[in-house]
Amino acid sequence: MQKWRDNVRAVVPYVPGEQPNQPRMIKLNTNENPYPPSPRVEEALWQMDAQKLRLYPDPAAAELTEALARRYEVAPEQVFVGVGSDDVLALSFLTFFNGGKPILFPDITYSFYDVWAGLYRIPYCTRPLDEEFRLAEADYFGENGGIVLANPNAPTGLAMPLEGIRRILDHNRDVIVIVDEAYIDFGGESAVSLIPEYDNLLVVQTFSKSRSLAGVRIGFALGQPELICCLRDVKYSFNSYTMNAAAIKLGTAAVEDEAYFRETTGKIIATRERTKEELSKLGFLFPDSSSNFIFATHPQLPARKLFEALREEHIYVRYFDRPRIDSYLRITIGTDQEMDIFLAFVRDYAAKQNGS
Ligand code: PMP
């Protein structure tokens, strides 16, 4: 027997979306941005001095932290940066959810939350969303060890009003409430404005979606200085140099190009609204997305079959084989041209299914 197995941390890992590498493909499966990062990011890339890579990066990532502080009108002591928001969220679970009571999150949400809870042995309870994937605030009013909510939620795309978040915060002054705003730049109201009022609120965002930098891995948390200080202490007990020199430079360049950010997020929102109309015409049903994806089901077209048919054409969307959502596809918003190709395929597919 392999006795050493008794000493291994048993985990059920998160399964990331597939990253296919086809020369001609339409990739609508991992909520990336279809547009390139800001031209300022490319400029910063060319200006990077390879000689300097022999040095360790700034452990505080001050340049990026300060750029974010300016952008979100908070103090630099209120900003924590990490290697994608997955890193920030994982560290936040480790830092803030140690009370022994179950933490709460919806039954349908970002599927990494239960993985981190499992990894750190944090007890958790899920609260069911209703039939339309809406959250019942009162489900979060009882005693708990902390709360994590994605807003807009994933994979549904549905945003909850800020007043709902406020009421949840009001009922939970003694635990940390994490609001994961990975998709907030495409709709919904950010909870950043509530930070001055709530010392237990941590808002987490990412550069992977609205800033087109999924490949660089940058995420950040905003909160009152005491919370950020706790996160930094844990980070420095784990790995001082999480942010590499390139990420700091490129991330700073991206935050500083507000005009480009507005232009590209605006284009994605416009394409999303058009895609909603087209999907409705084809008979799809979906929660009203405030994100850069649409979570759609069709009463006559089984999701898995459509997913597979799309895949054969190198059009990738995401299918989750899980209870309650296995008849849905999560479709990331691409460029107008990509969505036209996707929609044309689906139109054709639906016509063939009707004919057969
Ligand atoms: N939160 C949610 C809700 C997400 O969908 C994702 C993307 N998988 C993340 C966080 C993590 O994104 P990243 O680590 O790229 O910042």
Sequence-ordered SSE layout with sheet pairings:
Blueprint: E1 26-27, H1 39-46, H2 62-72, E2 79-82, H3 84-96, E3 103-106, H4 113-119, E4 124-127, E5 147-150, H5 162-170, E6 177-180, E7 201-206, E8 219-222, H6 225-235, H7 245-255, H8 258-281, E9 293-297, H9 303-312, E10 315-316, E11 318-319, E12 328-332, H10 336-355
Parallel strand pairs: 1-10, 3-4, 5-6, 6-7
Antiparallel strand pairs: 2-8, 7-8, 9-12, 11-12
Helix pairs in contact: 1-7, 2-7, 3-6
This protein binds 4'-deoxy-4'-aminopyridoxal-5'-phosphate.
Residues 84-86, 110, 150, 154, 180, 182, 206, 208, 214, 219 line the site of 4'-deoxy-4'-aminopyridoxal-5'-phosphate (PMP).
Describe, in plain words, how this protein is organized in 3D.
Helix 1 packs antiparallel against helix 7 (245-255), helix 2 (62-72) packs parallel to helix 7 and helix 3 crosses helix 6. The radius of gyration is 21 Å and the shape is globular. The longest helix is centred in the last third of the chain and has 24 residues, at 258-281. With 356 residues, the chain is of the alpha/beta class. Strands 2-8-7-6-5 form a 5-stranded mixed beta sheet, sandwiched between helices. The termini are far apart. A hairpin with an 8-residue loop joins strand 11 (318-319) and strand 12. The protein is built from 10 helices and 12 strands. It has 2 domains: 18-36 and 259-355, Aspartate Aminotransferase, domain 1; 39-256, Aspartate Aminotransferase, domain 2 (3-Layer(aba) Sandwich). It has helices at residues 39-46, 62-72, 84-96, 113-119, 162-170, 225-235, 245-255, 258-281, 303-312, 336-355; strands at residues 26-27, 79-82, 103-106, 124-127, 147-150, 177-180, 201-206, 219-222, 293-297, 315-316, 318-319, 328-332. The site of 4'-deoxy-4'-aminopyridoxal-5'-phosphate has 12 residues, from helix 3.
